[in-house]
Design brief:
With 375 residues, the chain is α+β, with helices and mostly antiparallel strands. It has 2 domains: 144 residues, 2,3-Dihydroxybiphenyl 1,2-Dioxygenase, domain 1 (Roll), CATH 3.10.180.10; 197 residues, 2,3-Dihydroxybiphenyl 1,2-Dioxygenase, domain 1 (Roll), CATH 3.10.180. The chain is 27% helix and 34% strand. The chain is built from 10 helices and 17 strands. The strands form 2 sheets. It has a 9-stranded mixed sheet with strand order 6-7-8-5-1-4-3-2-9. β2 and β3 form a beta hairpin. The radius of gyration is 21 Å and the shape is globular.
Length: 375
């Protein structure tokens, strides 16, 4: 390693970690927020809790806030054809615009990250209403995705100022508890740039990393690094395509999303069998793996609490680590373009990301790519 690189690594390791409590919410820009809200409410079981639009004095956009457990999803659509939201949807289709982070001091988080080289997306702002003071600011990250710092300790409203509380619109929850991690896709050769970004701007570190041999099939591969804070309340895996015989799933995403962006949102549950069973009843579509995956599952992962036949019926994957095991499953894309999808995950001691399932998972993804004519 060169002297200059050693110096740089030392400098990055000495950057103080930005205090972040956890994920605050995820905002998606969507083509029809009203209809998307119905999908997430009745398909995924989210409660519809707040609204912003013409009736609240908003003239350019409309937003619906959905909540289940500690998961908040904001669906925002455009009321005009020529604003930033409409352009985002035209280019990318439905997708994640904002990964919002819950912080104790939004002003400090913003000034610190900008001083470290982050590009400001929205300057620090304070909003006052009868429910208290709401504070926020935003910076740019990969693609047009932004991180918004949200300070809501002094705010007692349902979500944020200029939102109207919605009563009696429950979604019949399915057991979703909290955001476990949010995964981004970036271009070939850009992974190291964004790893350095999260080290330099946030003081985060590489929690785990995976090479092309770890995440590969007969046809394609990718490489990945997981950025996280010390207590792992924030975990942000980042993927880039790797050279293979055919098109990587990451490249397919980039082709349709037109730039880097959020690939999937992982949401934790305490009972994945019950959660996935209910989601399937409601019409949510999941990737499937061959039944042969389960033939040697007990030999590979050892004793588990769940019935393997039930897992096989639902298509749930299992991976064992030294600290325990995890169960996971992935939806198919939740919009027309093959871009954003969701992961449902249950951790039983395991802290990783299902490395033992990578091959089966990516073969399942490639099967879907082949159906789309994109492999």
């Amino acid at each position: 390693m060169s002297q200059s690189k050693l110096v740089k690594e030392t400098e990055l390791s000495s950057v103080a970690e930005l205090p972040v409590n956890g994920f605050d919410h995820i905002e998606l820009y969507v083509g029809n927020a009203l209809q998307a809200a119905y999908y997430y409410q009745h398909g995924f079981g989210f409660d519809l809790i707040a609204y912003r639009g013409l009736e609240t004095g908003e003239r350019d956009k409309v937003s619906y806030v959905l909540k289940q457990g500690q998961v908040y999803i904001v669906l925002t659509g455009s009321l005009k054809p020529d604003n930033e939201i409409a352009e985002h949807i035209r280019l990318h289709g439905d997708g994640v615009k904002t990964i919002a982070l819950d912080v104790q001091d939004a002003s400090s988080a913003f000034s610190t990250t900008v001083a470290r080289g982050a590009k400001a997306a929205m300057s620090y702002q304070e909003f006052n209403d009868e429910n208290g003071i709401f504070k926020q600011a935003s910076i740019h990250t990969y693609g047009t995705t932004i991180h918004t710092f949200v300070e809501r300790a002094g705010y007692k409203g349902s979500f944020a100022p200029n939102y109207k509380k919605i009563k009696n619109r429950p979604g019949n929850p399915v057991g979703l508890l909290a955001i476990d991690h949010v995964v981004g896709n970036v271009e070939v050769g850009k992974l190291s740039q964004w790893v350095e970004f999260y080290k330099r701007i946030f003081g985060f570190s590489v929690y785990q990393e995976f090479g092309a041999k770890d995440i590969s099939t007969q046809y394609s591969a990718l490489i990945s690094a997981v950025m996280a804070n010390k207590n792992t309340s924030i975990k942000l895996p980042i993927n880039e395509p790797a050279k293979g015989l055919r098109k990587s799933q990451i490249q397919e995403y980039l082709d349709y999303y037109q730039e880097p962006g959020v690939q999937h949102i992982a949401i934790a549950t305490e009972n994945i069998i019950a959660t996935v069973s209910e989601l399937r009843k409601r019409g949510i579509k999941f990737l499937t793996v061959p039944k042969s995956y389960y033939a040697a599952l007990s030999e590979r992962v050892g004793k588990i609490d769940e019935n393997i036949e039930e897992l096989a019926e639902l298509g749930i994957l299992v991976d064992r680590e030294s600290s325990g095991y995890l169960l996971q499953i992935f939806t198919k894309p939740v919009q027309d373009r093959p871009t954003l999808f969701f992961e449902i995950i249950q951790r039983k001691g395991a802290t990783g990301f299902g490395k033992g399932n990578f091959k089966a998972l990516f073969e399942a993804i490639e099967e879907e790519q082949s159906k789309r004519g994109n492999l």
